[in-house]
What does this fold into?
Amino acid sequence: MLLTTTQAAGRIMVALDYPDASGAEKLLQQLEGIPCYVKVGMQLFYAGGPSFIDSLKTRGYKVFLDVKMHDIPNTVKGGANSVTKLGVDMFNVHAAGGTAMMEAALEGVYAAVGSTASRPVVIAVTQLTSTSKAMLNEQIGIAGSVEEAVIRYAQLTKQAGLDGVVASPVEVEAIKAACGTAFQTITPGIRPAGADVNDQTRIMTPREALDRGTDYMVIGRPITAAPEPRAAIESIIEELTIG
It folds into this structure.
């Protein structure tokens, strides 16, 4: 698949994994003008709050709020309603919460925007990219392979009416086969060739992930910890535009 520069940038979600807004601000200044998504995780959201999300939207960024909701359905419904009102473009829940909880998340979204208005993309976490088969079997208590668990959760997510899942790039093709090509995949565990693996166990390069069919790739430290973050993301964009 060949992408334009703008399309390639739009497939990249830069993980703003900073303890506060001031740290993220330094990176954002370096990335100014690059039409990428930004991912705001728990630590930064808890520190920066709704005002930080508002500042990102004012700058024109698309925002993936990565708070991984996992609670009883009514609580998740309320949480989904609140983050929808913030204007985020995407947020996630845990598929392990079950179909009733995921359906409640959508109810919260529609209560905020109405049935005909545009709404955020709602996705579910299947298994974290730090999850190995040994961890899945011995600690989480789920038998079988990681891929089998991911596919089962992806199918439940589709059944609940959500838009896609967070999964490692390794499982993208199997998810698309099981749930259809329109079912979105958001893939962390992306590491450009030569980058440190860090704490990820199921990883792939940006080009490999794109060729597998992923819709978005979450990239953090290879950009944020690079000596020149702008050069790092521009290199990844170039990789995605070359066949």
